[in-house]
């Protein structure tokens, strides 16, 4: 098994099966543009368009960046981005962690 570093670019502690990964203090965020389009039953309705991902450091071998699903999907070219997968919950239904991470594509350096 090779040395791997996870850097958490979300604002929340991510609890993995191997232990918690604390937030770095810098969050990767997608730019968004919201446009009002009308109302349905008196409730305002908008469209939202997502753009560039901010605060994303360059790739480094052996380093995986934990980001939101939205940020990961916005950058399909980045094979170092991972997002929480299947969630674990406590008895009250609150999210306590995840059992796996989702990647954009499988690279050649994953453990077998």
Structure description:
The structure is a single chain. Helices cover 5% and strands 46% of the residues. With 112 residues, the protein is mainly beta. It has one domain. The chain has a 4-stranded mixed sheet with strand order 1-6-7-10. It has a two-stranded antiparallel sheet with strand order 2-3. A two-stranded antiparallel sheet has the order 4-5. A hairpin with a 5-residue loop joins strand 8 (87-89) and strand 9 (95-98). The mean pLDDT is 91.
Structural domain tally = 1
| Helix amount | under 10%
Biggest sheet: strand arrangement = 1-6-7-10
Number of β-strand runs: 10
Q: What is the rounded distance between the termini?
A: 9 Å
- Individual helix count: 1
Largest sheet: 4 strands, mixed
Topology:
Blueprint: E1 5-8, E2 14-16, E3 19-21, E4 29-40, E5 43-54, E6 63-66, H1 69-74, E7 81-84, E8 87-89, E9 95-98, E10 101-103
Parallel strand pairs: 1-6, 6-7
Antiparallel strand pairs: 2-3, 4-5, 7-10, 8-9
